[in-house]
């Protein structure tokens, strides 16, 4: 029992350290400086957020700390950027087209991801990509509003919308 409590405390401390590190890196990236006054404010803000939200999810909480996961994270970043550009161009073409070729619909897709953080990142990636919006998540099922619903079959829609993101997230989060 005591060993279990110690293991839980160590996991909690590790998660808090990951959350603090994530927040501080984000703070430095947003500010673009390593000036001592900016760092002090950042450290204090990150400590406060880590203290008050220590039980919430950090994107590193379930992240597998393996070389393959880091490579997958880099590939995921570039895949997401590519999808963002391609989707923006596709939606821009639809908007400027005189006949507005849309076929909106809500499609049901399935994910193989089991990690809550992996599922959250998948839902956010889908929503941030123009033309798709995650409407609801129910276990492994996602309901996606799709501006150009090219496929209504679950497997086909999953392959078009989810599969590209999922292959990287699966390596990162399982």
Describe this structure in words.
- The chain is mostly helical.
- It has two domains: 2-52; 67-173, no CATH class.
- It has six helices and three strands; from the N terminus they run αααβαββαα.
- The protein has helices at 2-31, 36-52, 67-96, 116-128, 154-161, 163-173, and strands at 105-110, 132-138, 141-146.
- The chain has a three-stranded antiparallel beta sheet.
- A hairpin with a 2-residue loop joins strand 2 (132-138) and strand 3 (141-146).
- Helix 1 (2-31) packs antiparallel against helix 2 (36-52), helix 3 runs antiparallel to helix 6 and helix 4 packs antiparallel against helix 6.
Low-confidence stretches: 1-9
Tell me the span between the first and last alpha carbons: 29 Å
Instruction: Count every helix, treating DSSP H or I runs of 4 or more residues as helices.
Output: 6
| Number of DSSP E strands | 3
Order of helices and strands: HHHEHEEHH
- Report the β-strand fraction as a percent range: 5-15%
Q: Over the alpha carbons, how many angstroms does the gyration radius reach?
A: 20 Å
Please outline the major beta sheet.
3 strands, antiparallel
Number of domains: 2
Provide the spatial order of strands within the biggest beta sheet.
1-3-2
Classify the helix fraction into a percent range: 55-70%
Structural class: mainly alpha
The coarse overall form would be globular
The mean pLDDT is 84
